[in-house]
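Help needed: design a sequence for this.
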């Protein structure tokens, strides 16, 4: 089986006539230099191509626009839920330094949802969050949860609850 002939190319062969190293992106004709992307026929006014900063700025804008479109789509596609009026029905302190809280939560929204509730145990407390079970639209449920009590010396008061 005959082997393919060995072809050796020089820089002048690849560069084309008169040592021109670039090729037009649009038509393939030789350009004045490797840094020029378009030939004189395709770019008769000699307008420069975009700089690296312009290209990267365009990419950043496209990514930012895509994230914005995804955020708006997520907001429009997610079902609305709530409001979730909540109140503490009862509470009891236990010997193991936990506080048992009974909460009534109502789903005031148009669809079933699982609210996130926060039990606030005192004036300096940031609260303890828990995820409630699914509540049908317009329905109310009683939820019993146990949370750690505040450290000794904290002012004692009734727990409060908020749900969202």
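Sure. Designed sequence:
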């Amino acid at each position: 089986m005959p082997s393919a002939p060995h072809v050796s190319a020089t820089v002048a062969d690849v560069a084309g006539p008169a040592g021109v190293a670039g090729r037009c992106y649009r038509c393939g004709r030789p350009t004045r230099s490797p840094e020029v992307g378009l030939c004189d026929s395709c770019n008769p006014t000699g307008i420069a191509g975009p700089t690296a900063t312009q290209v990267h700025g365009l990419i950043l804008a496209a990514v930012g626009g895509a994230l914005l479109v995804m955020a708006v789509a997520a907001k429009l596609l997610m079902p609305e839920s709530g409001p979730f009026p909540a109140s503490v029905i009862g509470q009891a302190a236990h010997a193991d330094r936990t506080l048992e809280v009974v909460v009534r939560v109502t789903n005031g929204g148009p669809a079933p949802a699982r609210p996130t509730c926060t039990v606030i145990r005192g004036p300096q407390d940031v609260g303890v969050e828990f995820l409630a079970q699914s509540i049908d639209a317009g329905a109310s449920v009683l939820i019993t949860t146990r949370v750690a009590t505040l450290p000794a010396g904290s002012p004692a008061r009734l727990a409060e609850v908020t749900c969202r």
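The helical segments are 11-15, 52-77.
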